């Protein structure tokens, strides 16, 4: 029996996940470990979407997206800054009747004083109306995607026709610009206090159920993202991207409009980057925009390069490896601190920096190398031709 | 002129100091770009290692900063920066360039290198801090500034940093235009294949260029330590602004770095004093000003100011 490599990769991933699940079922008493695994699984899902979208830009088009973190920020703004305020407005009456204040009247005191109380009032409303909670969730994600697509293209626009180095520098600076400006503008997302996001799943009976539901949603979105990107990348559009990446001038000579490809890819990838950002904000119920330093861009690149860029299975393998290793480092953090006399966070920076450099030098294709585009094979083309000559 | 001294102290002196620091740092980044075509994300770490070298040497010489000690330790800062830059070229970039790595690949490698250096510096500093029992992070190097009677610290810093920038600029001009090595280096920059055909060892020229880059940036790091607290993030936090300076000045010319450094330095100080402060905004918004400048540059004149000057001259 001959299996396609995609199927093989998916089976390996499924086995890893199944082993993790079995380990959880076998040791239910290890609550701490269980929480750790739940977090790990959900983060793998969210970062999976993030890195798959990065892969279209980096792996397929060779676009130096050094401002990827901006879509996590935009997700935080859309969910925490815009849709949450919409909920405050919608439940104004309930909030005023239970607390005696209108949060939208004075954003500053809302941010510093009673964000958590207001969130619990909104959560109580969601508990009675799960449909509204879900609407809040869907609206947040849709807005994240739309805003990201628009801003992703807008921020890249000044350098869209220039060489890749100019574009990369502009995107890096744009990410920092967006972070600083939105962080210090209090009405956007409460600045240093961070913004508390009501829980769209507050109608669930327990935290466990919420986690399971959230994991199912993230997994479903990850699978959908995987197939969407797989379809894009194996279409004529995707083949053009590889052509542009490998020989830009030649592609231009054959009539490929490179600027228009860049804009389309940025719009699609940014939208899915925003989806990851929205999911991250909803999962934590809280977001602080100042925390989205350029390291989050680098984490995405690290995952992609470890796994193998230009390959979706590789991208996912990279996410699993990175999250697995960094979780392990988290567990042994205290032990390391005692040995090192230094913050072990820096050790993980050092290790991932080293891994990136070594992989680029000795195995640039990553764990799972790039494969040829899936095209219809010659046999089936012949068969079709024989049927309808 | 009622408020002249206020203008000098709050606007002119900070603008000159910032401009000199960003110019020194940008010269190095422009040089990495015109020689080996890498907009290196590890560039800021060369400045941080320079500042650390100055601190640790002062500590072991005097047990701390004494007036003028940063100038005594400056050769060590230059040496530390030069060694680190040389090692990054020999160890990481040269092997990758030999394999025809693309600019994006080199950029991401420099990202990885940044995190390696950054993490190693933080860990080494943490270990040293425990071993020595002194606080080694978040200090300002101002006590190491020389004291000139009758002048404030800012005035001294403005003068010395200007002298340093002028000296570096003059030395580079002499090296590139008056020495045989300069001719070889310009040939390697302008047309590497032809230079190679003429028997020039281009890789060796680049290695020496990286030594120079590291030395200049290490010195820039010492001056940075006079106005920003020294941590492993000293250079990294300034990197977006250095990139802006380099792009605005023009990626193609070494002296573009100086022009860009001055544009960035003056725009953030003037913008803070005359736009942000009157509007009641916090200083963090300063980043918005160079960001707007870089967007205007990319839209109107992507070759940068130095590029405009060069094309005018050619006409």
Descriptive keywords:
heterodimer, A: 389 residues, mainly alpha, two-stranded antiparallel sheet, 18 helices, 2 strands, B: 315 residues, 0% strand, globular
The H-and-E topology of chain A, N to C, reads as HHHHHHHHHEHHHHEHHHHH
> Which structural class is indicated by helix and strand composition of chain A?
mainly alpha
Instruction: Give me the oligomer status.
Output: heterodimer
What is the arithmetic mean of pLDDT of chain B? 89
Distance between the termini of chain A: 32 Å
What spatial form of chain A do the alpha-carbon principal axes imply? Answer: globular
Trace the largest sheet of chain A across and list its strands.
1-2
Mean pLDDT metric of chain A: 86
The largest sheet of chain A is: 2 strands, antiparallel
Gyration radius of chain A, in Å:
23 Å
Strand content of chain B: under 5%
Give an overview of the whole structure:
The complex is a heterodimer of chains A (389) and B (315). Chain A has helices at 5-26, 31-61, 69-90, 92-99, 107-112, 115-128, 130-156, 164-184, 186-189, 207-233, 236-246, 248-253, 258-284, 295-307, 312-331, 333-340, 344-362, 378-387; strands at 195-196, 286-287. Chain A is globular and about 75 Å long. In chain A, helix 2 packs antiparallel against helix 15 (312-331), helix 3 (69-90) packs parallel to helix 8 (164-184) and helix 7 packs antiparallel against helix 13 (258-284). The model of chain A has no long low-confidence stretch (mean pLDDT 86). Chain A contains 18 helices and two strands. Chain A has a two-stranded antiparallel sheet. The longest helix of chain A has 31 residues, at 31-61. Chain A is an all-alpha fold and 389 residues long. With 315 residues, chain B is mostly helical. Helices cover 77% and strands 0% of the residues of chain B. Chain B is built from twelve helices and no strands. Chain B has helices at residues 4-36, 43-62, 69-98, 103-132, 153-178, 180-190, 192-197, 202-227, 239-249, 254-279, 288-300, 304-314. In chain B, helix 2 (43-62) packs antiparallel against helix 3 and helix 10 (254-279) packs across helix 12. Chain B is globular. The chains are: A mainly alpha (389), B mainly alpha (315).
